[in-house]
Fold:
Amino acid sequence: MLQQVRIKTVVIWTTVALVSAVAWSVLALSRGEEVSAAWMVAAALGSYAVAYRFYSKFIAYRALKVDRTRATPAERLNDGVDYHPTDRRVLLGHHFASISGAGPLVGPVLAAQMGYLPGTIWIIAGVIFAGAVQDMVVMFFSARRNGKSLGSMIRDEIGPVGGIAALVAVFAILIILLGVLALVVLNALAESPWGTFSTAMTMPVAVFMGLYLRYLRPGKVAEVTVIGVALLLFSIVAGRWVAESGWADFFTLSPQALVGWLVAYGFIASVLPVWLLMSPRDYLSTFLKIGTIGLLFVGVLIANPTLKMEAVTDFASRGDGPVFAGSLFPFVFITIACGALSGFHALVASGTTPKMLQKEPQVRPIGYGGMLMESSVAVLAIIAACVLDPGLYFSMNAPVSVIGDTVQSASDTISSWGYVITPEALQAAADSVEEGSLLSKTGGAPTFAMGVAVIFADFLGGQSAMAFWYHFAIMFEVLFILTTIDSGTRIGRFMLQEVAGKANPKFRDHSWKPGVWLASGVVAGLWGYFLWVGVNDPLGGIRSLFPVFGISNQLLAAIALTICTTLMIKSGRLKYAWVTGVPLAWITVVTLVASWQKVFSADPNIGFFAQRSLYRDAINAGESIGGQTEDQMRTVVTNATVNGLISAVFAVLVIIIIVDAGRVCLKAVRRPDEVVDLEAPHEPSRIIAPDSILATREERAELEAAGLPSTGGVPGEYGPTPKPEEGEGR
Amino acid sequence: MRRAARGLWWYLTELTGELTGDNAYRRYSERARREDPAAAVMTRREFERERADARAARPNGGGRCC
Structure:
């Protein structure tokens, strides 16, 4: 019997591995012919399955030695509010909802300028060996420390120097992140009355949901979400009527006007009560995301679009791409941050989720598995970008300074790169989604929306539905980013209030309005500054700022992997420290090389300071570069200086943290007996629950013998709500 | 089929409950009544206010990734 099961397993996994290997070969070896996107899905899903089954199991059971008999913080400290054992499937959904945002939809689209292959390889290899590992290991160590946050783990395990450097880095990263994401929203909505109206409508809808839940029918969340989604779909339809009516002018906003609206929005949203706007919109966007991603997977399989982008474009090696400058190494690896490896997940994986874990081995499905789901979203985003005609892709993602502002000039420039597209085709694409123009709609969101519209329209509604699906996807992405903007502004506000509280304790009081308003204003003003800079950047805001954003995000990942590696060494897992040490080394090299090039490269397209002196000299000589006015050139000089300084400061911060951690690790290796163990002591676990999402045969037998539903629990005791067909209800 | 539908509904209500703090209130009130049937249990509104204050005191409450 056992032998039979073994043979069946071997056959299944060999097949999965083979299918995935064939898919990879098709993707990698095709030159000149069009490849079906289904191969990309097959390569991704096959690789995820193999990695989950083998590598994550190795990490969990060999390297981390997850302990089924050890009670989790949720079991030991159960207070029913923060700490409570949660069904593993529900917790996976909860964790996924907390880690996923707009990041994996943006980076892959930009990276598509180098072809579909480099981005796809990094998304999949990166998540398997770095991103998912980071999430799981951080979650594990946090769970062993009663759900401590990343910041306090750094302070306690590495020391005050690393702790302060990490605090500064997190705050700076947050500001850049918010500025760049706001810029993505702005590029998607500028001069688009349909998109602006639909987005504006999400706010009354969310407020209505908030009031409904608070006063009309508290607790009926599933119900109000259904109503909210229906209202949202209606507002997309209504957007077309508005765009065709006399109201169109009111909702046609210039980029500069939108900056004001967005900053005001970020400020107001971060001081409003959470229940009124933030929470209802948060689950609205969560369910929209899960629904849309599911539909997109189905869409790719049914419509089976072909990838029109080349596997690897010339921009990969030449490094002179119009979307962002720099060659494949290191810039693909910082452009695609979320989806492959994201430091921000470490903030969620520590602190929140570990307090809800039912059993320790569940860090594997939730930490590793949750990140694989996030990565599949990034794969869909790169598919959406690559099913578009490459000429159209470049026309949407290259800045005005490169392709000019008419379809004729765009067509001429892009065709000269070898991606022939006629001016009529460019106009027809804009007409198909009822937008005035799609030229230089940079930032990834419009391109993603266009790809989604092409895929969805193929099997849902045909050509006439293109415009609806385009605006649906725009609103979906904007919704996410706005959620990130208000929760990000709020987090930044808390951090500032904490620090200001050291000087004046009054700032720590979150009900002291002047403090709240001042801190919110400072945070919104800071990211608003980067947004303003991005909007007015003559060379294209996304092109200049996105690399800084990527570097900062990957830097946070380096910090998270540093603490993981330090803890591996300090906890006597030196033999397995490579599990997080190798990705740490990789991402450190990538980020530092990228920062180095951004600061010191002599190529003014890449190096900020080279760009600065080029423009400075031209101004002094009274010359113009690319027909720009002197004011525009002065703007370039200022922006280049700020961006260059930021890149340098980030690099210095990460070096400080790594060196400080290295000192701690060295000490731990030399004198292992002096290591102070901050791990919570072992207490026996009484909960019986499966290790992974699906219970094995033995686990099912164990549950049945204890009379427990598939959720698990303590025999004869109160536990999470069981699935209805199994328990007796409560 | 019905089993699957009921399973899906269970999943949706549990997940939304977790996301909104709805489950937290249910857990709190049931636990409070179980431990001491005579105890004064906070109403949903009082509970939410308490939780909002607690969350406001911690920086990473409801953090969301990029």
